[in-house]
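Morning F.,

Quick status update on the modeling queue. The single chain you submitted on Monday has been processed. Sequence for confirmation:
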Amino acid sequence: FAGLTSFIKLEGFGYMAMHNALWLAVLFFAKNMSIREKVTRQLTFTAISVGIYLIFAVYKYMYILPAVPDLAADPTHFDLNRVALAGGGGVGHRMARVAWRYFENMFLSGNWNLVWLLFVLSLTRVDRIRQSEPVRFLLLFLGMFFAVYFFGYALTQHFVWVADKHDVLSRSILHVYPLVAAAICLINAGGDRSVPERGLSPSG
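Structure tokens below.
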């Protein structure tokens, strides 16, 4: 679904966590591997992905932020090194606002709204989803993506980027747009529905 180079820059932290969780799920359900091999593969993947992200994070912390004091002091700057829970009340209002902006960008944008509608309709094919392990893992990743962004915007100071701006969330959604198109194709692909698809193999 993605390469290790996606684990860089600011949003790389979220993608790193999501891909580690996805890889953990793939290994957990793998039936042809020993527990020791699963642990080894997970630790290897985690060490490499965290190492890639730390290169950027350490460099930014040591050389970029100190050199740009105004940027470091701006509480609304989209900086994962300085995420903090939003103060005050109104959590329910923020969640409702973010949920509406998701709906607005996905179904009322006039750009890719038909694809999202096809995706929602495809989710009604529960039998097909149950038969396809790759589809289930793909949907798991999409679920993690929306959860991370939803709570990230609703519960932190970065709510302002969704409440007061009209292009940030639409660009964020585009990050997984190819996966949505892939999910539609896989769920509705032709073939014998009585024969389950081959699952993902972490060994190959």
